[in-house]
Design a protein that fits this description.
The chain has 242 residues and is of the alpha/beta class. Helices cover 15% and strands 31% of the residues. The strands form four sheets. The protein has a seven-stranded mixed sheet. The chain has a four-stranded antiparallel sheet with strand order 2-1-3-4, with helices on one face. It starts with 5 loop residues before the first strand and ends with a strand.
């Protein structure tokens, strides 16, 4: 009987009060192809990010070629022989040059932005995430790592009370959504928080992330909605001309 080349045992990963993986076991054998299936938000990306050294598990053990290992970083994973091909969303051209990244934390059926959060930390960027303060007010706060996030408005992950309020209003503003169209309109989860925040000082480079099926010919919109500068899907990079 073949020995497994890789085992993940009892892997648990939490982001604040939200549990992304709970007691997950995964066993892989050499010479086989495996598919990891699950709905959006099931924790597939989180588990693979742990295997790739992007996240550290709260609990659990990883064995590679029969030896217990602690994968410290993506570079360490590559040196061990573990590689990962990420979604195209990680390859945002403007992300490379941006020093300050204002990142909406994804929810439910939106594009997962947690991998981008980890990439920004690894690249030494300043990362800011939004926090809903009232029914009409939202502000961004600086994150030091993913453990600064706690469950907030509608269950969306938000900066904890220990985070400092952003002192700048300039950088790359990344947001997913539920639907977009080719006129750069967006449908999100409601509340109009982004339009109010961006209208105060609209100096951000605004990039919207969408799955291909979320980009439609036309969607309902309001005239005051602020449009992103880019829409990025798995297969398209679209820039707004005006």
């Amino acid at each position: 009987m073949k020995e497994p080349i890789l085992e993940m045992r009892g892997i648990t990963k939490k982001f604040g009060s939200v549990t992304a993986n709970k007691d997950v076991d995964l066993t892989l054998y050499p010479g086989e192809i495996h598919a990891l299936l699950g709905e959006n938000g099931a924790g597939k990306s989180t588990l693979m990010n742990i295997l790739n050294g992007i996240y550290k598990p709260n609990h659990g053990k990883i064995y590679y070629k029969g030896k217990k290992v602690s994968i410290r970083s993506p570079r360490h994973a590559v040196d061990m022989g573990i590689g990962m091909v990420h979604q195209h969303f990680r390859l945002i051209p403007t992300l490379t040059a941006a020093e300050n990244v204002f990142l909406y934390m994804s929810y439910n059926r939106e594009v997962d932005t947690y991998m981008l959060l980890s990439q920004c930390f690894m690249d030494g960027k300043k990362v800011y995430a939004p926090k809903v303060l009232s029914k009409t007010q939202m502000e961004f706060y600086c994150l030091s790592d993913e453990n600064d996030l706690v469950s907030g408005y509608m269950g969306i992950m938000e900066p904890s009370d220990i985070c400092d309020k952003a002192k700048i209003r300039d950088g790359l503003f990344i947001m997913p959504g539920l639907a977009f169209d080719y006129d750069f309109h967006r449908i999100g989860y409601g509340g109009g928080f982004y339009d109010r925040y961006l209208s105060i000082d609209n100096t951000f480079i605004k990039a919207a992330l969408a799955f291909d099926f979320q980009l439609l010919e036309a969607i309902p919109y309001e005239e005051h909605d602020l449009k992103p500068d880019y829409i990025i899907t798995q297969t398209q990079f679209i820039r707004r001309d005006n």
